[in-house]
């Protein structure tokens, strides 16, 4: 959704080492300050020299005061920011210092122009849903923007599990694990396992077995209002539940994991010329050596 809402208070966050982000943080602060906007820094970057000139705020103050959070790093940094801030409706803008950057799409080479445009209210709002997971018997619910993975925790070691969709039995399977991913995560770990690439606007998520002991196992797309339940039937001690490769929990036989869509959406901010398929061409090497075309050129 294209908007023209101007932003007044900008927060900056990063989980990368200071030597990697120092120059970019300085540049962002200079741009924001020149536009006479307020700057807040998260506690992650308090060791930077520039931090002495601005307010260092705990996460709860960032959520109360900021209109936008700038995440400096790669997609992993945005995933971290999404868990900390995105679920509380704080929009996130990513500056890419990583290699691929499907979520963090501002480059340092054209940062001044793009950031000024966005801070002037010329940007696209992109809403994404998260998955949540809960282990039966535990009170804590955990969220993931990309994927939730149940895996054996070892190479060439299978686990056995049963899968239910809205309390309807789907299948019992032996495999190295199972990936449940959102459309956002379809260009991440799931893609490496042969899962389908999904446009972010699709209201579905994917169930993708990892190296299943079967000749007829395929990825399954289900409505994003579905509830998935997975029961561990047979496993070794190292069987794990992983969320965005960040939170990792141990699982055992008879554990029941419930996975569904987390209430509320996170908001990513993009430049006005952002296009998902353009990102696929650039990041995934589609149409290498072919110039940009329109339907009239075909």
CATH class of the largest domain: Alpha Beta
Order of helices and strands: EEHEEHEHEHEEEEEEHEEEEEEH
Do you know the CATH topology of the largest domain?
Rossmann fold
Radius of gyration: 21 Å
- CATH architectural name of the largest domain: 3-Layer(aba) Sandwich
The tally of strands reads: 18
Structural overview:
The chain has about 300 residues and is of the alpha+beta class. It has two domains: about 1-120 and about 270-295, Rossmann fold (3-Layer(aba) Sandwich), CATH 3.40.50.10330; about 130-265, Tumour Suppressor Smad4 (Sandwich), CATH 2.60.200.30. The chain is built from six helices and 18 strands. Strands 1, 2, 3, 4, 5, 6, 7, 8, 10, 11, 15 and 18 form a twelve-stranded mixed beta sheet that branches. Strands 14-13-12-9-16-17 form a six-stranded antiparallel beta sheet, with no helix packed on it. The longest helix is centred in the first third of the chain and has 17 residues, at about 20-35. The chain is globular. The model has no long low-confidence stretch (mean pLDDT about 90).
């Amino acid at each position: 959704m294209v908007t023209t809402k101007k932003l007044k208070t900008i927060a900056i966050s990063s989980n990368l080492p200071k030597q990697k982000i120092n120059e970019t943080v300085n540049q962002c602060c200079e741009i924001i300050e020149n536009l006479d906007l307020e700057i807040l820094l998260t506690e992650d970057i308090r060791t930077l020299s520039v931090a002495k000139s601005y307010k260092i705020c705990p996460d709860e103050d960032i959520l109360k005061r900021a209109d936008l959070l700038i995440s400096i790093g790669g997609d992993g940094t945005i995933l971290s920011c999404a868990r900390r801030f995105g679920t509380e409706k704080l929009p996130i803008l990513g500056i890419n210092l990583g290699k691929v950057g499907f979520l963090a799409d501002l480059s340092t080479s054209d940062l001044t122009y793009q950031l000024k445009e966005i801070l002037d209210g010329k940007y696209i709002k992109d809403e994404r849903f998260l998955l949540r997971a809960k282990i039966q018997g535990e009170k804590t619910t955990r969220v993931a923007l990309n994927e939730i993975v149940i895996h054996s925790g070892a190479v060439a070691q299978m686990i056995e599990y049963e899968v239910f969709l809205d309390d309807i039995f789907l299948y019992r399977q032996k495999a190295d694990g199972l990936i449940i991913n959102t459309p956002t995560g379809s260009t991440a770990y799931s893609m490496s396992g042969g899962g389908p690439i999904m446009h972010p606007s699709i209201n579905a998520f994917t169930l993708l077995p990892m190296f299943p002991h079967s000749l007829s196992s395929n990825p399954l797309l289900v409505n994003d209002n579905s509830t998935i339940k997975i029961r561990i039937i047979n496993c070794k001690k190292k069987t794990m539940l992983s969320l965005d490769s960040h939170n990792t929990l141990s699982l055992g036989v008879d554990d029941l994991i419930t996975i569904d869509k987390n209430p509320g959406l996170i908001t990513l901010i993009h430049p006005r010329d952002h296009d998902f398929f353009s990102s696929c061409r650039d990041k995934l090497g589609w149409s290498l050596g072919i110039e940009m075309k329109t339907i009239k050129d075909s």
